[in-house]
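Methods, example record. To illustrate the input and output format used throughout this study, we show the complete record for Probable hydrogen peroxide-inducible genes activator. The sequence lines were provided to the predictor; the line carrying structure tokens was produced by it.
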Amino acid sequence: MPTVLQLKTFLAVVDHGGFTSASRKLRLSQPAVSRAVASLERELGLPLLHRQRDGVQLSEAGKRTARHAREALRHLDEMHAEVAAMRGGITGTIRLASLPFTTDVLVAPQLREFSQRHPGVEICVLEGSEPEIRDWLDQGAADAGVISLPARGLTTAFLAAQDMLAVVPAGHRLAARDEISYVELAREPFVRATGGCAQIYMAVANQVGVELDVAFEASGMSAVLAIVRSGMGVSILPAAALIGHPRGIAVRRLVPRTIRNLAVAVSASAGPAARAFLDQIAAMGHS
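The corresponding predicted structure is encoded as:
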């Protein structure tokens, strides 16, 4: 019978992309992590991971094992949480997936407050793009995540509203303006971020009847900023991603004003601890 340590170690390797990262996360030696995964593979009788230069890839058996391992650990967490609730406390683990630019400003203060209220809950923060976060929620790899509204099919609590801002090279003619319209941005080569915020401003562009001339796509905010700074295009990014933005970039108000509404969502399999965190976020909106 697989042990809890084997299952946790296997999932840590999967979620963190390799044995070295998993060993740091679990505070175990890399040989200990390798032994735990190897022993799980021996017990199940099939290889679960394909070792590659740039990380690991799940085998077909590994995909099924990961799904069942998450369910098994979730049930264990629920058992501990429900018994703890009978004693008047909440325990367990929250795996919270956050957008990189929201972690420090929006998420960390909420996690500090939650940890003070529920010291028995272990908190694990993952960072990824919005498409990744939605996948993690669907797969049960994350219990809760920060996403944009609307979020059909998910239970959510409003977190914050963030302005989207126009971003142009510092020496660009539009940098002399206090505000920049979609019409003006549409006349320039456009850099579209693929991390999730594009759906917000592309919808507004459609509403005002302009088509942005997408010349580049980049998955990370830093990559978008690097392309803009080089003078190859303009873009639109969330205000929180532009705090302490690099030199060579001009940030201006966007016309019409465009808002990205962020929320915390929980997965269908979320346990009591994640739902308690969601309740805290929801209460914040009513305070």
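Annotations derived from this record:
DSSP finds ten helices and twelve strands in the chain.
The mean pLDDT is 89.
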